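INFO  loader      accepted 1 record
INFO  loader      residues=177
INFO  predictor   begin
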Amino acid sequence: MAQKAAKQQAARNTAILKRTHLISLAISALFIILRLLVFRASCTRATYLLYGLLSIPAFIIEFWLERIGRPVTTSNGELKKSGEDLEAKGLTEYMWDVLYWTWACTTTAAIFGDKAWWGYIAVPLYSVWLAWTTFGGMRRGMAGMAGGKSDDDAVNGSMSNRQKKQEKRGGQKMQYR
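INFO  predictor   done
INFO  writer      dumping tokens
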């Protein structure tokens, strides 16, 4: 079973990409069909302009995920590259969030009209919040390096709940150096 993990990764990525493309196609078709046939009276040129403009990030992200995640095989069918993990944390996770939110905004705009596109403002707000919490976490993590805490605070802050309970009961006290 050579490269079992790589083959599993390739199969998982292929399934994820196929599902992503089908959902994207279905949502785009739903938008166009509902706007052209059902809600034709409220459909204007601005509707399609907003759809095109606000769907660009989703299409770019989908293209990028396809590019990094699609497995590459040789001409004889052997796996050359399994692709990056599409379920990874960090930037990939953020891209999935933007893609899901775009799909939600497109679906609600197809059903409720152009005012639903205002929900897309959540993407930059989420980006700012994510950057702020990441920076704040790094800042708090680096504060211990500056020596701002006393030794007692540092010791008590690093104790697990089990250690705190044992010391509270008068059991074996932990010695820290």
